[in-house]
Request: fold
Amino acid sequence: MTAATMITVAPTGAETAKADVPALPTTLDELVATAKACAAAGAAMIHVHLRDAADRSCLDVGALREAVAAIRAETELIVQLSTGGGVEDSFVDRIAVLDADPDSCSLTCGTVNFGDSVFANPWPLMVELYTRCQDRGILPEFELFDLGHVANLKRLLDSYGPPPGDRVHADLVLGVPGALPGTTEALVAVVAALPAEATWSATGIGRSTLPVALAALSAGGHLRVGMEDTLNLGPGSPVRDNAELVERAASLAAAAQRPVMSPAQAREFLGLE
Ligand code: KMH
Ligand code: ZN
Reply:
């Protein structure tokens, strides 16, 4: 079992409105302040979504480049950009995210129901993202919302070879309405199906955050937490900010005797230079 725990923070997402949750970091200044606070609390990686002035998902390459540079200037965090964006974002814009030269990017391994919407990830999009990651040395993190997504991950590896750095790292996203539930049973089923060489983190949406985190720690996985996925610590208890979720994850990891990885340790773990 892996001894240390890598914590990724996903501070913003594309779905929650700033007007509904004022603590959501949506400006560049708020994002950088959040990155610093979460790094101090134990995060090693940040999964970034940007918003435009109207609070919509923003995949503008210039803005993404600026955000990558600003986070790198203020923290050691591994910077992962979302290529998922919001469900309305175009494939062209989602592919262009890689032009902002992040350390890592999310790469969702299949189309999935997403609440009342559909999050579209057809095979040609996955191939385009994956092969561009290989060309540019960007580490893809394979987002798995459903069991069938593992088959697509294996098909990518079989068809196009290993990722840059030769590390296969996945993130199990559990508890999205319309996809796998956020349960220990679902987590165990996905982990059992992963390629033998894969490492993984897990994310439990909403009230599944704690069950999924505890299951992941006991099963040797890593953690993703943040306000993209979780807005309440518990019933009737809204989160103060992202650092509070990272602090809680770090406490759970410490209790499991799997203390947090520093960003440098996480870079080594993921095969990043
Ligand atoms: N906002 C979701 C539609 C990712 O970042 O790659 C997609 C998502 C996954 O958040
Ligand atoms: Zn995301």
Notes: The chain has one domain: 7-270. Residues 13-15, 82-84, 86-87, 106, 108, 114, 119, 143 surround (5S)-5-amino-3-OXO-hexanoic acid (ligand 1) (CB under 6 Å).
